[in-house]
Design goal:
Isopropylmalate Dehydrogenase, eleven-stranded mixed β-sheet
Amino acid sequence: MFKKFSEMLDIAKGRGMKRCAVACAEDTPTIEALYNAKKENIATGILFGQKANIHKILDSLKIPKDEFEIADCDNEKEAITKAVVEVAQKGDFLMKGQVTTSNFLKGVLDEHSGLRGERLLSHVALVEPSLYHKILFISDGGINIELDLKRKIDIVRNVVNLVTSLGVEQPKIALLSAIERVDLHMQETLDWAVLTRMGEQGEFGNVIIEGPLALDVAFSPYAAKVKKVRSQISGEVDILIVPSIATGNILGKGLQYLGGAKICGIIIGAKRPVVMLSRADNKDTKLFSLALGNLAS
């Protein structure tokens, strides 16, 4: 398992070129990232969007117009639909371009597109924090708004599948809350108690899962000692499961914009990996996500 994104890039280079379809590709950082990914033998792609606008971006970046295949689309919906179908039929992974998450996900979730599987779709953010010794996985801060117990179980299963496929042999999972005890007035603490018990019974495979845990206990053995919380994972967490989409989104972007962390993101649960990140992310962040798409496909 890589401990830095630079190592992730090197591993992706070694696996060889993957084919990526970009939905709504009229976006300078996205095209620049894909161009760099092609030069690094990580990914090439087909750009779905308005060809005239894509050509303007290519010209501004001094990239030859024949560097990528371009599928001319009249509007956003057409670009999303055609990109999704392309990946479902012959691509390796899908990437979100300059489009809102809600509109993009409608295309991904369309039952007629051929990309949606039987599993719940969930988002995983990979974070390289400046003050932590390994990569963190945060889920779900990007897709699921309504979280019942079943969805939380599926989110844990999805992220465990991803993390183990990337080489973590025994993922350590913290189920985040504001406190470390079960409180009848805080639904996530009740759900986390169930998931912890399921983990002890082997329902998630070879993992160590604990919760509810506050963030300080998850990362500080000293905090765990002071609070008298017995933990096998304090200071060694791999996966953070958040109680709401808002919590995950704020945590990830807080680490990125206030903590200087590197970040990338992916949707898992579909028949092919789906790279999804913020429209505001720069070319480096998008390159990291392309490398992740390579590794996950």
